[in-house]
Amino acid sequence: MLSYEQTMAVGQAQYQDAIDALCAANLPTTFTQTGGMNAALQVSLDGGWSLLLTDAQDSLSWSRAEQQGWGVGLYAPQHAFDGECRAWISTPENSLTALRACIDAVLRSAVSD
């Protein structure tokens, strides 16, 4: 049985390409679990805001081969993991291009609200 740290490292390795691409775009991204070993990528934004990146309809799959699209939610500083989502969008596409489009759309919708 894998330790928590080993499990997290395996999960991170599945999404390292996305983490690297987002970090290169000045979106500091980490692999995290939001409770109950539900996986997500977390992007830290200015002012303590966060983006949580998941599968389109559920937590992020621990195996990239099982990933079903992207879901992107914007969370206020005090609500990062409690379900208080300020903006949300999803796509059935798994590409990094689709992920960036979702991030852009969520951030634009939050500014226009």
Key structural traits:
five-stranded antiparallel beta sheet, alpha+beta
- Class computed from helices, strands and strand pairing: alpha+beta
How many beta-strand elements?
Answer: 5
By DSSP (H or I, 4+ residues per run), the number of helices equals: 3
Sheet with most strands: strand arrangement: 1-2-3-4-5
The helix-strand sequence is HHEEEEEH
What is the CA–CA distance across the termini?
46 Å
Helix content: 25-40%
Instruction: Give Rg in angstroms.
Output: 13 Å
Shape descriptor: globular
Strand content: 25-35%
Low-confidence stretches are none
Task: Describe the largest sheet.
Answer: 5 strands, antiparallel
Mean pLDDT, to the nearest integer, reads 92
Please explain how this structure is put together.
The chain is of the alpha+beta class and 113 residues long. The chain has helices at residues 4-14, 16-24, 96-112; strands at 29-33, 39-44, 50-54, 70-75, 85-91. It is built from three helices and five strands, in the order H-H-E-E-E-E-E-H. A five-stranded antiparallel β-sheet has the order 1-2-3-4-5.
Topology:
Blueprint: H1 4-14, H2 16-24, E1 29-33, E2 39-44, E3 50-54, E4 70-75, E5 85-91, H3 96-112
Summarize the structure.
By secondary structure, the chain is an alpha+beta fold. 33% of the residues lie in helices and 26% in strands.
